[in-house]
Amino acid sequence: MAKKSKSLAIENEDNNKKLIGYRGRWYDVSNFTDYHPGGNVIEKFVGHDATCVIDSMHKHNVLEKRTPVGCYSLSLGNFDRCMNDLEHKFRTEGYYDNSFRWYVRKSITTLLIIVLVFCLVVSGAADENIFCVILTGVFLALFWQQSGMLMHDFMHTQFFQHRLWDEKVGVFFGTVCFGISARWWKDEHIIHHAFTNTVEPEENFVDPQAMEALWAQNVLLFPFHTAPWQAFFVKIQHWIFVPITVGLGRIGIIVDSFREEKRLDVWAALLAHWIWVVLLLSYFTSWQKIVFVYWCGCIGEGILHVQLLLNHYSKRFYTMSEKRNEEYYRSMFDCNLNITCPWWMDWLHGGLNFHHEHHSFPRLPRDRLREASVHIKQICSKNNVHYDECCFTVAFCRTIYNLSIVSDKFRKMLKND
């Protein structure tokens, strides 16, 4: 693991400086933290080594315009060193650079889905029989699901590899097409990557994409579920997980994403989203069909939420101190689970069936993840790191079982209190 500094007060004359460690050198980011594109998560690394997280989530030259203000002793663990070397290999061999055409084809294919939906509706075929009505809802769900996956890719700058341009396209697919605040999602997702399954109740900090008000998948989350109504739901969380995630997941994430959203471009994109949705639904001749198609789309797209939660919900949680004292990449493998499937099913999972690979190297394009997994498995084997993977069914059962076990622990805690 990386050795932390003895004390910034000893190593630096100005204790008010906000210093972040990278490859044995301290960098002063005091005048940058408020402007960090990734948000205030950077504050969590002040006074600590951030070599691995910077290498995995940023371009290698991200600090080239900054002058180091001090040095410290850096000693990476074997696993972190091997993963850093692999990241360098991917970078020098062009793994990050050759996916432009793939994403163009993927984007066009996704947009053709909604074109097909409009063709069904405008032609009147979708309004004539129940089969076409159901088919419209299914294709609508598929469009939302694939748009959400593309939003994820663009917000990780996997397309243009230019933050501003990728974010603009990410807002298009995430807000105009998918219907949520793509920028809100990115703000939370960056914290999720930096501190996956990490909790610190004393600081009121929790991985935002590991926290839901209705259930607690780990005992470390109990302090965040103190309201009587929350206690009621945690007791039955293994029963309500699927119905709520699938049936209400889309509505919930839309509401959450816009609750405090103030950025005008996102609200404009949301307006565009509802214009095409209302236009699409206006072609149906009855309210029953309108509600059915939209809700069918919501339920179908709700499977996406289950997909994403299975990657983390049965895995280890860390406190902040535990996280900082563990190797960065080793902690990532402790907190993630891969879903095994044939190569031709990668499109349905949006590449996130390779969660170990994605969390290790978030900027790595989706079409290179399966190839990258071969190298990562070799490194895990050499370093005695468990590469956890299983099929969707087993992952689902593990998640439900974990929710049940944690629910029992919650009951016992309340009983003892």
UniProtKB/TrEMBL annotation:
InterPro entries recorded: Cyt_B5-like_heme/steroid-bd, Cyt_B5-like_heme/steroid_sf, FA_desaturase_dom, Fatty_acid_desaturase
Record has Transmembrane as a keyword: yes
Domain Cytochrome b5 heme-binding positions: 1-80
Source organism superkingdom: Eukaryota
Phylogenetic classification of the source organism: Eukaryota, Metazoa, Chordata, Tunicata, Ascidiacea
Associated pathway: Lipid metabolism; polyunsaturated fatty acid biosynthesis
Keywords of the record: Fatty acid biosynthesis, Fatty acid metabolism, Lipid biosynthesis, Lipid metabolism, Membrane, Transmembrane, Transmembrane helix
Protein name (database record): Cytochrome b5 heme-binding domain-containing protein
Transmembrane segments: 111-144, 236-255, 267-286, 292-310
